[in-house]
């Protein structure tokens, strides 16, 4: 498949709902500006594809839908209400920084059909070649159980593989993945670099945060997808200002999930 890549390193940046809300009940324009500022600072060397959650969180700001007993259907309706608002905030904030945005809504089944995969790659490459930043979210209206059981971590990993990205950077609300013991006694010691996902899975605790869906487990599952296509996954604290620049410069704690190192 023609990838149409430039000389720049391609980063797929996944932004979780907690980062976008800065753990409040409102989408944070300040956080979206922070992300835009970092893209401006890095754009000479890197090109970006964003996978952004937050549609449900933004809708919850101003609507309380009657439940029909099916929690998933309510979430799908909330996502439908919130998505255009989310995109508007991205578009306005990024435009002020001279950045152009576009929206792509994808489903998991799109990654199983050759023609859809080609269309995704071609569309995104044309967008990037014309300096548009694709902002991807799941097409929640047609999703089956993903809103409940998975989340955008896996979607971001599949996207990174399809687009032959150089890096998947998952922005969440902790300094990467911490040792289980340190989470339990609240001292939070980051695991800096790891290749063995089974070992990593043993460090995960079952908690998720306020707006989060899959917790750390789904991030490790995402990393197993990217590992299979030779892409590193970094998990960094998106609540901090300048988290991408700082991770690239290695000045903050974060988790780097590298390709498996085999002992010959
Ligand atoms: N070992 C661990 N280290 C850090 N966080 C962990 C760990 N195990 C589970 N978690 C939980 O995973 C959460 C992040 O995932 P999630 O709530 O889905 O956020 P997001 O919206 O960023 O996807 C953390 O806030 C924490 O509660
Ligand atoms: N597509 C949904 C994603 C749901 C979600 O919470 O995802 P995440 O914050 O990545 O755990 C949305 O935009 O709200």
Automatic annotation (TrEMBL):
Query: Per its UniProt record, what Pfam families does this chain match?
Result: AA_kinase
Listed CDD domains:
AAK_G5K_ProB
Keyword Transport set for record: no
State the pathway, as annotated in the record: Amino-acid biosynthesis; L-proline biosynthesis; L-glutamate 5-semialdehyde from L-glutamate: step 1/2
- Which top EC class is given? transferase
Query: Where does the Aspartate/glutamate/uridylate kinase domain lie?
Result: 9-237
Q: Where does ATP bind?
A: 14, 213-219
Binding-site residues for substrate, renumbered to this chain = 53, 140, 152
* Main location (coarse class): cytoplasm
Keywords assigned by UniProt, alphabetized: Amino-acid biosynthesis, ATP-binding, Cytoplasm, Kinase, Nucleotide-binding, Proline biosynthesis, Transferase
Q: Which reaction does it catalyse?
A: L-glutamate + ATP = L-glutamyl 5-phosphate + ADP
Q: Tell me its EC number(s), please.
A: 2.7.2.11
Enumerate the InterPro entries for this protein. Answer: AceGlu_kinase-like_sf, Asp/Glu/Uridylate_kinase, G5K_ProB, Glu/AcGlu_kinase, Glu_5kinase, Glu_5kinase/COase_Synthase
Chain's role? Catalyzes the transfer of a phosphate group to glutamate to form L-glutamate 5-phosphate.
Query: What family does this chain come from, according to its entry?
Result: Belongs to the glutamate 5-kinase family.
Name of the protein in its database record:
Glutamate 5-kinase
Give the lineage. Bacteria, Pseudomonadati, Bacteroidota, Flavobacteriia, Flavobacteriales
């Amino acid at each position: 498949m023609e990838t149409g890549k430039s000389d720049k390193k391609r980063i797929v940046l996944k932004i979780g709902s907690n980062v976008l809300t800065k753990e409040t009940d409102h989408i944070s324009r300040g956080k979206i500006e922070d992300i835009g500022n970092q893209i401006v600072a890095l754009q000479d060397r890197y090109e970006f594809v964003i996978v952004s959650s937050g549609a449900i969180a933004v809708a919850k700001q101003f609507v309380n839908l009657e439940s029909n007993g099916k929690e998933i259907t309510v979430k799908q309706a909330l996502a439908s209400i919130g998505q255009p608002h989310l995109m508007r905030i991205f578009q306005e904030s990024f435009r002020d920084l001279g950045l152009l945005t576009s929206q792509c809504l994808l489903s998991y089944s799109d990654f199983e059909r050759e023609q859809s995969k080609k269309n995704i790659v071609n569309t995104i490459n044309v967008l990037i070649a014309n300096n548009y930043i694709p902002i991807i979210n799941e097409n929640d209206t047609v999703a089956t159980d993903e809103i409940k059981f998975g989340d955008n971590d896996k979607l971001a990993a599949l996207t990174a593989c399809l687009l032959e990205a150089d890096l998947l950077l998952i922005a969440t609300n902790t300094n990467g993945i911490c040792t289980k013991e340190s989470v339990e006694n609240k001292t939070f010691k980051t695991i800096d670099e790891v290749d063995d996902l089974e070992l990593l899975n043993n460090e995960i605790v079952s908690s998720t945060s306020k707006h989060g869906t899959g917790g750390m487990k789904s991030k490790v599952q995402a990393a197993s997808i990217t590992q299979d296509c030779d892409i590193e996954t970094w998990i960094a604290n998106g609540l901090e200002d300048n988290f991408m620049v700082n991770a690239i410069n290695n000045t903050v704690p974060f988790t780097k999930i590298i390709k498996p190192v085999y002992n010959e």
